[in-house]
Design brief:
about 325 residues; alpha/beta; TIM Barrel; eight-stranded parallel barrel; two-stranded antiparallel ribbon; 11 strands; globular; F420_OxRdatse_Rv1855c_pred; Luciferase-like_sf; Luciferase-like_dom; oxidoreductase; monooxygenase
């Protein structure tokens, strides 16, 4: 399954720091991403790391930092992969994302999921319902988000929603987004039923998650689109690729050692720029038109520059974007 006709391949940077990050560290990586010619910079939305007892982990709020980046970058698109739908009430999240979108001049995207990291929720006092309840809540979160974003200011009556978990009453002042009808929504995962069905209804981009049969997940999502009368060629199809890229064995091994877990390493592109170029191409052949390069060492800006210089020009369909003016 080759990339869809007329649609260029997007290569993005996804930051998930192993030990957390201070804002200045996130900003430096986002600016390096922009300088290297990447199309977008995304970050995870986590309050704990892979090891929940790691005393070095420094949590930072995803959307607070993205709002800061909105004012301190000039070109790259900015987003979350993915925001936990359990972390923030949907009405508040609608306002937060709309604010960041306006601050960025319309460069924000919302990757969102059900939430999965139970210990993380326990550590920060956030409710963590059962799997079925999280999916039920997730559908309501998306209904509220899109309902508020497409609501007409001053409408009489305003937007209302009554669900099992959330209720909105007569909102006549909905959050205004810079993008219309609203920022792109990204939904993904490995589940074969509810995830693709929900994504078919709400997502501008379906992310096939990591590991397993990516092509089959794309096919299931495509069938879910067809089931509701949506053209499966209309949404984007994305994949995540952990990366350790270097010019010699010592550099490669050092970067590979930082990758968060054995599962991530087993699904990573570890090697030279040519190896990473091939890895991106393999995902494109499966059907991905958007690839997120998953990086863990947020201080290793040289790796970002290397990929920008030695990989982006050789990835079919991917354009190297010139640096914009930053504030």
């Amino acid at each position: 399954m080759a990339p869809r006709e007329g649609r260029g391949l997007r290569v993005r940077v996804l930051m998930e720091p192993r030990h957390g990050a201070r804002y200045d560290d996130v900003l430096a990586l986002a600016r390096a991403t922009e300088d290297a010619g990447f199309e977008a910079f995304f970050r995870s939305d986590h309050l704990l790391g892979v090891d929940p007892s790691d005393p070095e982990y420094l949590p930072t709020d995803c959307w607070t930092t993205l709002a800061g980046l909105a004012r301190e970058t000039g070109r790259v698109r900015l987003g979350s992969l993915v925001t936990a739908g359990t972390f923030r009430p949907p009405g508040l999240l609608a306002a937060i994302v709309a604010t960041a979108d306006e601050m960025s001049g319309g460069r924000v995207e919302l990757g969102i999921g059900t939430g999965w990291y139970g210990r993380e929720h326990e550590a920060f006092g956030i409710d963590f319902p059962s799997t079925g309840q999280r999916f039920d809540r997730f559908e309501e979160v998306l209904a509220v988000l899109t309902g508020l974003w497409t609501g007409e200011p001053g409408a009489d009556p305003g937007f209302s929603f009554t669900g099992t978990h959330f209720r909105v009453e007569d909102n006549r002042t909905p959050p205004r987004t810079a993008q219309h009808p609203h920022p792109p929504i990204i939904i993904g995962g490995a589940g074969p039923k509810r995830t693709p069905a929900i994504a078919a209804r709400y997502a501008a981009e379906f992310n096939g998650a990591l590991g397993g049969d990516l092509g089959e997940r794309y096919a299931i999502f495509g069938r879910a689109c067809e089931a509701i009368g949506r053209d499966p060629a209309e949404p984007r199809y994305s994949a995540v690729l952990p990366v350790a890229c270097g010019t010699d064995r010592a550099e490669i091994d050092r970067r590979a050692a930082v990758i968060g877990s054995e599962f991530m390493r087993s699904n990573a592109a570890i090697g030279t720029p040519a190896r990473l170029t091939d890895g991106i191409g393999e995902l494109a052949e499966i059907g991905a038109d958007t690839v997120y390069l998953h990086v863990y060492d947020i201080h290793d800006l040289d790796q970002i520059a290397l990929i920008g210089a030695e990989v982006l020009p050789h990835v079919q369909g991917a354009a190297r974007h010139e640096t914009g003016v930053t504030s």
